[in-house]
Design brief:
By secondary structure, the chain is of the alpha+beta class. The chain has 5 helices and 22 strands. The chain has a 9-stranded mixed beta sheet with strand order 3-2-4-5-12-11-10-7-8, with helices on both faces. It has a 5-stranded antiparallel beta sheet with strand order 1-14-15-22-19, with no helix packed on it.
């Protein structure tokens, strides 16, 4: 209530100097619909599913409104994720330039703007009711972490698109078109289409990945860990980005920034007490972190408590006990 809010403001005032000029260390940019807070359209839920999957897997990312991508510098990012929502010509040009300069763009369908530079020549069909539809995983070996789920299919939620691709485009996975989904004796598919689940196209120095379905929406609605794992493995294997190396559970959020003094701030949010709509306070959790950096002079929490750490082969390894909602590690 009010007491918790007062504590938060007091904490922010106390550490104001430390947070001056902070810059995120994320290499992933997640583009959100401009009116993402207004209702729950498929584009918004697709964005939220990507947000949750990245957060739970400890990937460092920034989120920015679609209307701002042409106004900010994109140089530090290696991957841009654009979930399913309206993509106009101006924003398409920004994404094209980003890919041409060596970045990876992951695009969701749902727009009248067909980006030919991403290997899409024309739309053939749009299926809005995809109940009983799946993505058939053709080569799970290329996504090693995904193999733990032993899943050969992933559910499609929110529809999919069929499109004609250019000759240089590589197609991956295939769509299982909607079929009977009940009663149990009739809910088995008998045919896998030749329509790709996603495509990959080289764009000068970078690449474009076009998704025929909405994995973020499927995760937001279905809550299947296999879907979230597929999403993050796509980032790792095709985007060349990796999560923070940690054994922290998915309820711990990791945010890394640098301030004006060139100190690294690793912010750890312990959300273990947040279950559904109930907040019972955080549970104590001990986590291990490994971070690539120069040898630090000092590693401590923001309140000055020293932390056990060691530095090996250019990597900082440390242990942190999370007893509060927020614990900040200061690497000097």
């Amino acid at each position: 209530g009010i007491h918790a809010a007062q504590q938060a403001f007091a904490w922010a005032r106390k550490h104001e100097k430390t947070y001056e000029g902070i810059v995120s260390q994320a290499s992933i940019l997640l583009v959100r619909p401009d009116a993402h807070w207004m209702g729950g359209g498929d584009g918004v839920r697709d964005y939220r599913g990507w947000f949750e999957a990245l957060t739970q897997a400890h990937y460092l990312f920034d989120a920015v409104e679609a209307s701002r991508i042409a106004k900010i510098s994109l140089e530090k990012y290696r991957v841009m994720i654009v979930p399913s929502y309206g993509l106009d010509e101006e924003r398409s040009k920004v994404l094209h330039r980003f890919a041409s300069c060596g970045g990876t763009v992951i695009l969701g369908w749902g727009s009248d703007c067909v980006p030919n530079w991403a290997g899409i020549e024309r739309k053939v069909q749009q299926v809005k009711d995809s109940r009983g539809g799946y993505i058939a995983i053709d080569n799970a070996d290329s996504f090693p972490a995904f193999q733990q789920y032993r899943a050969s299919v992933l559910p499609i939620i929110g529809g999919y698109e069929v499109y004609q691709v250019s000759k240089d485009t590589v197609c991956h996975d295939r769509i299982i078109e909607p079929h009977y989904y009940g009663p149990p004796e009739r809910c088995y598919y008998t045919h896998i289409s030749g329509h790709p689940g996603w495509t990959e196209t080289i764009v000068e120095s970078g690449k474009a990945i076009w998704l025929a379905w909405k994995p973020g929406l499927a995760f937001a609605e279905g809550r299947q860990n296999a879907t979230a794992c597929w999403m993050t493995e796509l980032l790792r294997r095709k985007g060349g980005v990796a999560p923070v190396s940690t054994d922290a559970p998915s309820c711990v959020e990791v945010v890394v920034s640098c301030n004006r003094q060139r100190e690294t701030l690793v912010q750890l949010l312990n959300l273990s007490g947040n279950v559904g709509g109930v907040w019972g306070g955080p549970l104590p959790i001990s986590v291990q972190l490994e971070w690539s950096c120069r040898r630090p002079a000092r590693v401590c929490t923001l309140n000055g408590s020293s932390l056990p750490w060691r530095w090996e082969d250019g990597n900082l390894k440390l242990s942190v006990d999370l007893k509060e909602i927020l614990t900040v590690v200061q690497i000097v």
